[in-house]
Amino acid sequence: MVFASPAGALARLSGDADRSDLELWAVQAISPPSGTLTGMVIRAAIVETGNPDELRGTDRDPKHIIRRALAAKGIVSQFLSNHEDDEEAGDEDEPRSDHAAERALWDLLRSAGVFPRAFPAVE
User: Fold this and answer.
1) Which of 10, 46, 67, 83 pairs as cysteine with 51 (C-beta 3.0–4.6 A)?
2) 2 CB contacts (<8 Å, ≥6 apart)?
3) CB 108 within 8 A of CB 48
């Protein structure tokens, strides 16, 4: 598993890039530098984007362009937002569970062909 924040990510994932630049950037961002992951292949990517309310329904939403560019390389993708609604914030004293991130990870694993079994109940 590799975690990365490629150069230019903030601007591009916030919707401030044209289509051709975004496609090229997405493929280069997910491709490891030559020789660094010898024998390893990237099959899946979780991509964090900006506020979905600001991007949805506009031509600035990078998800569809990135998803198609990565799919052309055989890479499945799942998207998360770094935006938190006031309703989701809840009580600061209570621990939060990030259900959206958990569901995104499970969906990504299934899309990549991994079908994990549920852990057995612990008594």
Assistant:
1) 83
2) 32, 37, 42
3) no
